[in-house]
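DM from R.C. (forwarded with permission)

"hey, sorry to bug you on a friday — could you get me a structure for this? deadline for the figure draft is monday and I only need the backbone to look sensible"
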Amino acid sequence: MAQGHSHEGHSHDHGAGHVHGSTDKRRVLLAACLTGGFMIAEALGGWLTGSLALLADAGHMLTDSLALGLAWYAFHLGERPANSRLTYGFGRVKTLVAYTNGIAIFVVALWICYEAWQRFQAPPPILGGPMLVVAVLGLVVNIAGFLILHGGDRDSLNMRGAILHVLGDLLGSVAAIAAALVILATGWTPIDPILSVLVAVLILTTAWRLMRDAAHVLLEGTPPHLDRDGMARDLVESVPGLREVHHMHVWSMDGSRTMATLHACLNEGIDAHGAVTAIKARLAAEHGIEHATVEPEYGHCADGDGDHDHHHGGSGHDHDHGDHHGHAHGALQGAPADRRHYH
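My reply, with the result:
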């Protein structure tokens, strides 16, 4: 069942997605250099002016430059070919980095909230003029970084994480500019920590969405835009001689490359090779799944009537198959074909 696995998945990687990945890699590296370079200037500006908004943005830019560097390395690793131990290659490293970036953003945002509370209770003196100059320069740098990343692949979780970091910096610069203007006009320094918290809350909401989507990929959930049960019904209705589909699993490697495994129960006399070919063609043409592993069956399911999990629609993980694909992804969990149906 695992035959052809490396070949099919590999050919899929070298299409438009491969080109996108190389340009995304350059975009992320350039943004990392911009962010890291200005972070030093902003940290010095925040320390000299006494502005939490600038210090918070500089702290965020520090984590961002590290995160962007990590995102660049994830793209670099993702270009490595699959091997006998990592049969899917390194593509999922990008998803791990995206999840890690989400956690880092959470930590930074919580620190900003804590520091803002401390400063709100005892507002320190703030130099509004120099603060405004540094904040405006930061805004220019962050807009440049955002525009560089914005042209990348928006379906890539790794790129989404990188864009989120720079967007957080951009919002931080806007908040620092607004705080500086208020301080220059009225002298009311509490506006600095107040706007810092507002930016932190905005960052937290977007970070949560990134972590949720990355976790869904890591848990091998069905991509949100696909309906597994609807796909199974579509196959039965579209492929002649296909009686039912069961043990169907659909997951994404990195948020953009989707794979599937399934058992195809065929009527007696139906050519297995022809049916499998038709199923794969339908999945590719109608559902965007260009790599599918299909096990044709006649009569009872090959997994037999042993002590298997019958409670999760084919998603149990209680037993081991020799097939690497089934073992790694829970693709071939056992119940007879007539015990679980998706149509």
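R.C.: lifesaver. Residues 1-19, 305-343 have pLDDT under 50 and may be disordered.
me: no worries. Residues 228-329 form a domain with the Alpha-Beta Plaits fold (CATH 3.30.70.1350).
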